[in-house]
Amino acid sequence: MNPNTLENYWMPFTANRDFKADPRMVVSAEGMYYTSEDGRQIMDGAAGLWCANAGHSHPLIVEAIATTAKTLDFAPMFNFGHPEPFRLAGQLAALFPDPLNRIFFANSGSEAVDTALKIALAYHKARGKAGKNRFIGRERGYHGVGFGGISVGGIVANRKQFATHLPGVDHMRHTHDPARNSFTRGAVPHGAELADDLERLVTLHGAETIAAVIVEPVAGSTGVLPPPEGYLQRLREIATRHDILLIFDEVITGFGRLGRATASEYFGVTPDLITFAKGVTNGTVPMGGVAAAQFIYDTVVENSETPIELFHGYTYSAHPVATAAALAALRAYSEEGMFENAARLEQAWGDAFHGLKDAAHVADIRTIGLIAGVELASRDGAAGARAVEVMKRAWAKGLMIRVTGDIIALSPPLVLSESDIGFMADTLREVLAETA
Ligand code: PLP
Predict the structure, then answer these.
(1) 358 alpha carbon to ligand 1 midpoint, in Å?
(2) What is the pLDDT of residues 355-392, one digit of tens each?
(3) Which of 335, 351, 385 is the last residue of a domain?
(4) Does the C-beta of 251 come closer than 6 Å to ligand 1?
(5) SS (H, E, C) the chain
């Protein structure tokens, strides 16, 4: 067997045959840039995968990882502990809105989502309401790839290849309404009434059967869908009225993406559970988790009939190296004012990308915080093909972007400058002009 072949690695969410025929490889990263295998500087327009919010190879984080790998390479978290996750949980509790101050650690966004769903079930069971075991998600939602996540998720391709889902899940309609909400900044003006889908599903199934509703405050992986103004508030109100837990999946919106610690803070709506991952360690070492309202923790813990209150956890929950990376990332975000930088640049970011309104193929543009979604008109009979070509051409010109269907998503490190924004928008305009 040829050890240099690309064939053995089965790549995730990738057109394997296409990639292996013409690979795009990076070999190092620093600040806003990757270095490609052929030695070019590639500006990171996607913060890796929405995770390197502090930029790459941040010295504080690199140092923390190296030191911890030398001093405490692993620590078991079942019945033992080490001090740092307790410290990290305290810092995260301070960052998340009150009363979300109980932190459970996992290793990815997918695990965070499955954990949040389980916590919701455990909470209702602890109150003698085990019948509340149905989940409500939303069309076009992305909640990772666990069976819980794909069940509540609403991205069709991620579901239909796999027959087995959680039973009893239902979905609200998505909020994408280009006829009423095109070329928007921030929350979109129309569609708050779509939150009433939750009320309809309560009428259909009965509140006594519903444990929780889960949404991304800004849907990312489906192609950047900011919520309608007032939508999240309405969901909150309906969920509270029917004793349904509200879960915000903040895996991409957490840690400064919207210029605030969380989207909950940005929109002024407090859920009962928040899932997080990615930016918590700046993407350096896998970590995810759930911030739960204190009343959820208290209910589960105080009503437990067994010494262990929650039969759930991962070998790598609060891994020492991930924990150290997270503590360093939080320090970097705070000491260097990165969330504030993101907030300061939101206007310039929006101006630059909305300036592409007249660029070739552009059908819609949506910006919020440091996120931009540039939706292209699809080629006849080849949905997604144009955006893939744009992604490849941008790579050749030194810009990494992400595409979903025919939507280009940009979500750079929060440490970018106005001239970086200019480079991204200019490169995209050129590439669009060159693409058929
Ligand atoms: N939830 C949301 C909102 C996400 O955007 C993602 C990943 O992009 C996930 C969950 C899954 O995270 P992971 O890939 O770390 O499992």
Answers:
(1) 32
(2) 999 999 999 999 999 999 999 999 999 999 999 999 99
(3) 335
(4) yes
(5) CCCCCCCCCCCCCCCHHHHHHCCCCEEEEEECEEEECCCCEEEECCHHHHCCCCCECCHHHHHHHHHHHHHCCCCCCCCCCCHHHHHHHHHHHHHCCCCEEEEEEECCHHHHHHHHHHHHHHHHHHCCCCCCCEEEEECCCCCCCCHHHHHHCCCHHHHHCCCCCCCCCEEECCCCCCCCCCCEECCECCCHHHHHHHHHHHHHHCHHHEEEEEECCCECCCCCECCECCHHHHHHHHHHHCCCEEEEECCCCCCCCCCCCCHHHHHCCCCCEEEECHHHHCCCCCCEEEEEEHHHHHHHHHCCCCCCCCCCCCCCCCCHHHHHHHHHHHHHHHHCCHHHHHHHHHHHHHHHHHCCCCCCCEEEEEEECCEEEEEECCECCECCHHHHHHHHHHHHCCEECEEECCEEEECCCCCCCHHHHHHHHHHHHHHHHHCC
